[in-house]
Amino acid sequence: xxxxxxNFPVASILMPRRLRYPVGVIYDFARRADxxxxxxxxxxxARLALLNGFRAELDRIAAGQTPETELFVQVAGIVAQxxxxxxxxxxxxxxxxxxxxxxxxxxxxxxxxxxxxxxxxVGRLLLHLYGATDARNLAYSDAICSSxxxxxxxxxxxIDYQKGRIYLPEDEMAKYHITESQIAEGKTDAMWGxxxxxxxxxxxxxxxxxxxxxxxxxxxxxxxxxxxxxGGESILRKLHKSRGDIFTQRPVLTLGDWGYMLYRSVRAK
Length: 269
Fold this sequence. Notes:
By secondary structure, the chain is mainly α. The chain is built from 14 helices and no strands.
């Protein structure tokens, strides 16, 4: 997982060679747009203007015009070759724009709406590359991608707070008496553990709901998908073990985890 766009399966050694280029182009698009929302010292208006520049390039592609930048010449090429829906690229831009202007989420429904645009389009684009876009596969993919986004939120509560954002539902925080000052101070009392276990259990169920996709997709694509799913499960196990103490025990995948995940993924085909 790249630090710029954690929920994107990079064109790794497991990816079939024929798909590494289009996956790399999609990743580059997502990384650059994500950087517009997060990196550097630009103000909100400047960030939104950069994202609108990307929208204008997508509009040129839709109109059959030649894009003005090399990245979007590449995007236009893979869109045409693989018949990728441009709306999925627009959805990603909408999520990145939302990151610029929205820093709190009142309900889990709001969080999931963000996941629908920030994470799910990635999985759907990959399914288009694979030629596996029936309704069942799309539903499985959405469950996996949303759960991975939620896992990233749980991992990065402290990091996101430093950026001024909290992706935890405010109504659920209130139910468990979790305050922003508690996050700021890194306090992990009994209620915090209960709150994080609730988040963990719900996210695990969502990840498991999409897990059949790892066996539906064949060959190296299926192997990579099983690795991605097991990576999410590993992080959730570490969160459970620490009772959600991401302040002193932020869960990460170790070399041993990767070896175990590969072993399990190969045996699970």
